[in-house]
Specification:
With 455 residues, the chain is α+β, with helices and mostly antiparallel strands. It folds into 2 domains: 110 residues, Glutamine synthetase, N-terminal domain (Ubiquitin-like (UB roll), Roll), CATH 3.10.20.70; 320 residues, Glutamine synthetase/guanido kinase, catalytic domain (Creatine Kinase, Chain A, domain 2), CATH 3.30.590.10. Helix content is 34%, strand content 18%. Strand 1 and strand 2 form a beta hairpin. Helix 3 runs parallel beside helix 10, helix 9 packs across helix 11 and helix 12 packs across helix 13. The termini are far apart. It binds adenosine-5'-diphosphate. The site of adenosine-5'-diphosphate (ADP) has 13 residues, from strand 7, strand 10 and strand 13.
């Protein structure tokens, strides 16, 4: 299935008047699409070669603040330009917007035209290349969970984020009746994404009022990250078109279940055979898979930041909510951080359940691959699977319980520094400490209500 357009296809559609707008986008640190809307004639005549953006786009926080402490850019260096280099193999229609297509860009240094190493696409490409050098290709799928709300983003903002009514009144896990009521958003979302070349498998109600999940067919890690990014963007835009809001904040209320982004992973040989399946081994797990999973476990603390990048992300990790708290692997057991799926079959894969709905899929996938590659290179042995209710397992190692801990594990990770480069880890370690510093300055509603009279 491909809805992707060649550059020649695009030129024809522009000439016939079917396309008048090209979204020229990069993926920022937060996993968002940023960029410019080109008049299509200008894009096909000139901008397809390259365009430019301020180099602060890979160093702002989620609110576009400009923290200090980044080597790549600063007020001192005058916040110059990056080159946005359109990847002409990524032109796709945006069917929920009239006459519009989208293209993703690689980010290059303005002077040298070398890839900017901390750009999320470059970070993932590097790990894909390392895996390729070992003779493997990863196939991955990232699930998207999110909440739909009755009102629009603007109405909710105007109410100070207090008027948060989920679109449904009850836990709608697998419910057909309730999700029928949400088809005004979900049906166009599925259909538009498929028409944009994103292979949606299904959507379903999730285990909380107003919570939906979108599943996309597994593909190469780069395609998977691209699908995820565009699908998340489309979810917000289509909800907005319907006068509703969709949030990917992992935990919007402490009494409600959080939203995850589970990551399914399998390795394949360059000839296209499963490198994870060995029918003669226990559970059908090949030696390669055992080493890979052992790497995911050993380096889980190192990689947690890339799966949970904000203070709020850590509120998800609560016992009894299907979000993990312990670094274990298990066979088809949803209380574990890493769940073996499809055991004994060619569909065998490992599902990482640590990530929240706020992860940047490029960075999260890169971190998972780096951990798995370390497992392969170190030929790590895999401990037996954990059984039963893992939340109650006192011997198992905890997943970092706060952004502060995860940021420290990231910063100290020799493995990630070697795999991704010191410059990349320094960059994201700064992003992590900035988030913590910002939060630490704020007096929350909780503190006021708790202490106002009684302190
Ligand atoms: P679940 O019961 O966890 O929802 P699904 O069968 O719906 O499981 O699969 C979840 C995701 O796993 C889907 O996006 C699917 O495309 C993906 N998937 C299936 N097989 C593989 C594989 N071999 N490698 C990676 N991902 C896979």
């Amino acid at each position: 299935m491909t809805a992707l357009l060649s550059f020649d296809d695009l030129k024809q559609r522009v000439a016939s008047g079917d396309v008048d707008t090209v979204l020229v986008c990069l993926v920022d640190m937060q996993g968002r699409l940023m960029g410019k809307r080109f008049h299509a004639t200008n894009f096909v005549d000139h901008a397809y070669i390259e365009t430019h953006c301020c180099n602060y786009l890979l160093a702002t926080d989620i609110e576009m603040a400009t923290p200090d402490g980044y080597a790549s850019t600063s007020w001192e260096s005058g916040y110059g330009d990056y080159v946005m280099k359109p990847d002409l193999n990524s032109i796709r229609p945006v069917p929920w917007l009239e006459g519009t297509v989208m293209v993703l860009c690689d980010i290059l240094d303005h002077h040298t035209h070398e890839p900017v190493s901390h750009s999320p696409r470059a970070v993932l490409k590097r790990q894909v290349e390392r895996l390729h050098a070992l003779g493997f290709e990863a196939k991955t799928a990232t699930e998207l969970e999110f909440f739909l709300f009755e009102k629009s983003f603007d109405e909710i903002r105007q109410s100070g984020f207090r008027d948060l009514q989920p679109i449904s009144g009850y836990n709608e896990d697998y419910h057909i009746l309730q999700t029928t009521k949400e088809e005004g958003i979900m049906r166009p979302l599925r259909n538009h994404l498929v028409a944009a070349g994103i292979p949606v498998e299904n959507s379903k109600g999730e285990a909380e009022a107003g919570q939906e999940e979108l599943n996309i067919r597994y593909d190469s890690a780069l395609n998977c990250a691209e699908f995820h990014t565009i699908a998340k963007h489309a979810t917000k835009e289509i909800a907005w078109q319907q006068g509703r809001a969709a949030t990917f904040l992992p935990k919007w209320h402490h009494d409600r279940v959080g939203s995850s982004s589970h990551i399914h992973q399998s390795l394949w040989t360059l000839d296209g055979d499963s490198a994870f399946f060995d029918k003669t081994s226990e559970h059908g797990m090949s030696q390669t898979m055992s080493h890979y999973v052992a790497g995911l476990l050993k380096y889980a603390p190192d990689s947690t930041y890339f799966l949970a990048p904000y203070v709020n992300s850590y509120k998800r990790f609560a016992a009894g909510t299907f979000a993990p708290t312990k670094v274990t692997w298990s066979i088809d057991n949803r209380t574990s951080a890493f769940r073996l799926c499809g055991d004994g079959t060619k569909a065998i894969r490992i599902e990482c359940r640590v990530g929240g709905s706020d992860l940047n899929p490029y960075l999260a996938l890169a971190a998972q691959l780096a951990c798995g590659i370390a497992g392969l290179e170190e030929k790590l042995a895999l401990a037996p699977p954990t059984r039963g209710d893992v939340y109650k397992n006192k011997r198992a190692k905890n997943i970092p319980t706060s952004l502060r801990d995860a940021a420290q594990s990231l910063n100290r990770s020799k493995m990630l520094r070697q795999a991704m480069g010191d410059d990349v880890i320094d960059h994201y370690a700064r992003a992590a400490t900035w988030e913590q510093e910002e939060f630490d300055q704020v007096v929350t509603d909780y503190e006021v209500a708790r202490g106002f009279e009684r302190a």
